[in-house]
From TrEMBL:
PANTHER family, alphabetized: CELL DIVISION ATP-BINDING PROTEIN FTSE (PTHR42798:SF6), LIPOPROTEIN-RELEASING SYSTEM ATP-BINDING PROTEIN LOLD (PTHR42798)
Organism for this UniProt entry: Faecalicatena faecalis
Classification of source organism: Bacteria, Bacillati, Bacillota, Clostridia, Lachnospirales
Protein family membership: Belongs to the ABC transporter superfamily.
InterPro entries found in the cross-reference section: AAA+_ATPase, ABC_transporter-like_ATP-bd, ABC_transporter-like_CS, MacB-like_ATP-bd
The name this protein goes by in its record: ABC transporter ATP-binding protein
ABC transporter domain span: 4-221
Keyword line: ATP-binding, Nucleotide-binding, Transport
Example GO molecular function: ATP binding
Bilayer-crossing regions: none
Amino acid sequence: MNVIETQHLTKIFKDGASEIHALNDVNLTIEKSTFNAVVGTSGSGKTTLINMLGGLDTPTSGTVTIDGTVITGMKDRELSIFRRKKLGIIFQNYNLVPTLNIYENIVFPVDLDGRRVDKAFVEEVIHTLHLKERLGDYPYQLSGGQQQRVAIARALAAKPSVILADEPTGSLDSKNSQNIAGLLKECVDTFKQTLVMITHNLELAQLADRVVRMEDGRIQE
Ligand SMILES: Nc1ncnc2c1ncn2[C@@H]1O[C@H](COP(=O)(O)OP(=O)(O)OP(=O)(O)O)[C@@H](O)[C@H]1O
């Protein structure tokens, strides 16, 4: 079953008189419960693609379907509810809530949705991400790498069917990157989640079931 599908997905950025074709007629299907790495040179369209899959930006043309629902053209409110229920997005800038402590940040999306937190699972995530000692702290007290780990924990805690990640281990050392990639892989296998992760790290890409290679806004598998 395909959990993600794009049809003729195109994004053109206008820059003065010139146009940048960041995505060029991308037709991508991603199967449920798979780990997908997106690789490609700088400027090839990876972040633009992830933003479109997460409904964070609107395509110039084409559509995105997630779990059978066409999200393209959805109203903002509808889209943010859909996103909260179905998607875990790990941003490059962590977007933690400054007035909530680390634990509250991690369970925030689940709380917002009025769902029960799976405490045992959240504890495992916290343990793997080495956040146990920091749960009562506030985001400003954490380093960039620690904040990144909180953002990953937050995305996983809600057990979304799709996890979108843009360089989730970008500011971490190689051992921590491997551990976190291992945890993400475990989530894919255990909870049948689907992961689409941009990475420049070829070691991490090797853990993936599929490597999607982008070049000039197109997929070159
Ligand atoms: N908001 C924007 N306005 C104008 N051009 C943009 C915008 N966002 C992206 N672009 C352009 O679209 C192209 C694709 O950018 P994108 O960020 O998707 O690449 P990327 O593969 O993620 O690169 P990197 O690996 O460096 O993060 C680039 O040429 C970029 O300059």
